[in-house]
Amino acid sequence: MDKQTIILLDNGSRRAEATLSLRKLARSLEDTVGETIYPVSLQHANHIDPGLVEGRPALTFEAFLRDQLQSGRRKFLVVPLFFGQSRALTSFIPDIIGCLQKEFGPFGLTLADVLCPLPDGDQRLARILCDNIETTLRAHGIPRSRVILVDHGSPTREVAAVRELLASQMRQILDPGISLHEAVMERRPGSEYDFTGRLLEEVLDELATSEDDTPVVLSMLFLAPGRHAGSGGDITSIRDRVVAANPSLQAVITPLVGEHSGLVDILKERLEQAL
Questions:
Q1: Is residue 266 part of a domain?
Q2: Which residues pair with 183 in a beta bridge?
């Protein structure tokens, strides 16, 4: 019972595709490190119909830990599938651990580092994003473009700083002729949240009206399909609305970071560092 239970943890989504993506990534990490990896979501995934996720209910963090503790497990290693230190990691998880320790007594839980630890980040993430851009340009036969790096948007400065750092690193990798912009899907009102960034629809509208004969690539700083990213997500809807209003504009969307094979190498390193 002393062996650590290893968890690959994402934030969670009500979309079945997100759980299937998490499970696929966990299997790839298992094959790489030779250890059992449990794909677990922090929240939301328990609302997914098991019939949509291979007939097996999605695992959520608090329920999974409770089951493990009841079976006698006392040591856990969590590999977070998060770009930066969001409040999910700094607040929500400690609250869950505190509640469970009151019920089950002390137990050990090690939290591995995030995908893009500040201040230096991880150049491999920037290369994954640039690789996805180049793949998209080739697939659509686009010789030159403008790029918008888009993420969820966060009210936490440390998370917003991750996107800014990756954008800076990407500018050093991409062709100098490619202009790189940044945008978010969500931000709170008020000037105190200006650090979050500008909304995607606003940035894309601006680029469409300023130079609609140069294509735009939406670079997805997302790990898995969800409400915003992936087929049928908000990002596709926004792109379609802007293109409908500007028929000369070509706007294409890159694959997600979680679909790139290079992500497993980063996760492997985070796991080994924590061990």
A1: no
A2: 150
Judge whether 30 lies within some domain. Answer: yes
Judged on CB neighbours under 10 Å (0-12, 13-18, 19+), 18 is buried
Q: What pTM does this model have?
A: 0.94
Q: What is the per-residue pLDDT across 149-189, written as a single tens digit (0 to 9) for each?
A: 999 999 989 999 999 999 999 999 999 889 999 999 999 99
DSSP per position, 199-221 = BHHHHHHHHHHH-TTS-EEEEE-
**Residue 230 resides in a domain:** yes
Residues 128 and 212 occupy one common structural domain:
yes
Domain carrying residue 91? 5-112
Cα dist. 172→126, 127, 143, 175, 180 in Å?
A: 9, 10, 19, 8, 11
DSSP summary character for residue 60 = B
248 and 134 housed in the same domain: yes
End-to-end CA distance of the chain: 17
